[in-house]
Design goal:
alpha/beta, elongated, 6 strands, about 60% helix, 17 helices
């Protein structure tokens, strides 16, 4: 059957353990977290426990069957962990056999599929989708999809984590931290730990976050675009310098900057057509994790005309062509191309 995180968490807290779990989704942090929680509930904290049997995608149906059907060693239960299982690598007969084995998993065994290192595109392929659908119909199985979380929901988790560590952070600053990390829950968790360690028992302020948290390159490139839209030359070049200090490749910077201006153009056209942010997100299939960028784009283009944004995109296209044909092997040339592009974008800020 299918379940959500809330129901799964409640069951684990109550001591209920299913025979088979299938964890997947965009939120890798939660996939890994709940995989560890199930293992801790069944065999304990020792990753080398003899009753924790681990497989990747390189196993046979017979090996899986033997591992599931054999009795645990000197314990009441055991766990079979299968990491990043890809149905595309098995025959249809093998998948049918695996499904049958899982449906008959004995009470003393728990099987956990943890799909944290496999791409969502691969999971969406026909055979993988069919496998997930079959598992969701088995009574002893829990299929849980961990979808990407919004900035607001991640902010709630950041605030709870800060409180647990004896610190405080406002909702506004928690959202700021989430967005600086592009809603990457793993990174948000580690950054919150770092900030709590720094302030000890005080408040995590916006100034502290700005000084201590390293923006992801994509987030910083987007911030450059926002600064340019506001005609803030100093801020744009300061952020560009920071990306160079991080040793981010110029091609990557330009690519992220181009992505920001494409968002700006979509937002500008949408506003003129009377469309909402939600409609833009749906029409262009923005991932949930980065959908907040559409709202930022709507704000950024308040003073920009569509024709100017088109000129900016054309300028970025020319810079990309120049960078890839002349500047990628020469750091000085590539930096000059990028700085000239940023300076050119300022001409169309209004």
């Amino acid at each position: 059957m299918t379940a959500d995180e809330k129901k799964l968490s409640a069951e684990l807290k109550g001591g209920t353990i299913r025979r088979v779990y299938y964890f997947y989704g965009e939120e890798v942090f939660l996939t890994d977290t709940y995989t560890k929680r199930v293992i801790k509930k069944t065999v304990g904290d020792d990753p080398d426990d003899v009753n924790l049997i681990k497989f990747s995608d390189s196993f046979t149906v017979e090996q899986l069957a033997d591992s599931i059907e054999s009795l645990p060693m000197f314990a009441e239960c055991k766990t079979v962990l299968i990491k990043d299982f890809d149905c595309e690598k098995f025959s249809e007969d093998d998948i049918a056999a695996i499904t049958d084995i899982l449906d008959n998993t004995p009470a003393e065994c728990t099987v956990v599929f943890s799909q944290s290192g496999i791409s969502q595109e691969l999971l969406a392929k026909k055979r993988n989708k069919a496998f997930i659908d079959k598992l969701s119909k088995q009574s002893g199985t829990y299929v849980v999809k961990f979808a990407a979380m919004t900035s607001t929901k991640i902010a709630d988790l950041i605030m709870k984590k800060a409180t647990k560590n004896g610190c405080t952070i406002s909702r506004q600053n928690a959202v700021m931290l989430a967005e600086m990390s592009l809603n990457n829950l793993t990174l948000c968790s580690s950054e919150t730990d770092k900030l709590c360690s720094y302030v000890q028992s005080g408040e995590i302020t916006a100034d502290i976050i700005d000084k201590l948290v390293l923006r992801l390159p994509d987030a910083k490139a987007y911030a450059i675009g926002t600064a340019l839209a506001q005609n803030n030359r100093k801020q744009a070049f300061m952020l560009l310098d920071e990306l160079y200090a991080q040793r981010v490749e110029p091609v990557m910077i330009l690519g992220s900057l181009s992505g920001a201006y494409i968002d700006f153009y979509r937002a500008s056209c949408a506003k003129r057509a009377g469309k909402t942010k939600e409609e833009v997100i749906a029409d262009f299939a923005y991932p949930k994790r980065t959908s907040f960028l559409v709202g930022k784009a709507f704000t950024a283009v308040s003073r920009m005309r569509p024709e100017n944004i088109r000129k900016c995109i054309s300028l970025l296209k020319d810079a990309d062509m120049k960078l890839k044909t002349t500047g990628t092997s020469n750091p000085e040339v590539s930096r000059r191309v990028l700085e000239q592009a940023v300076a050119g974008l300022l001409m169309y800020a209004g």
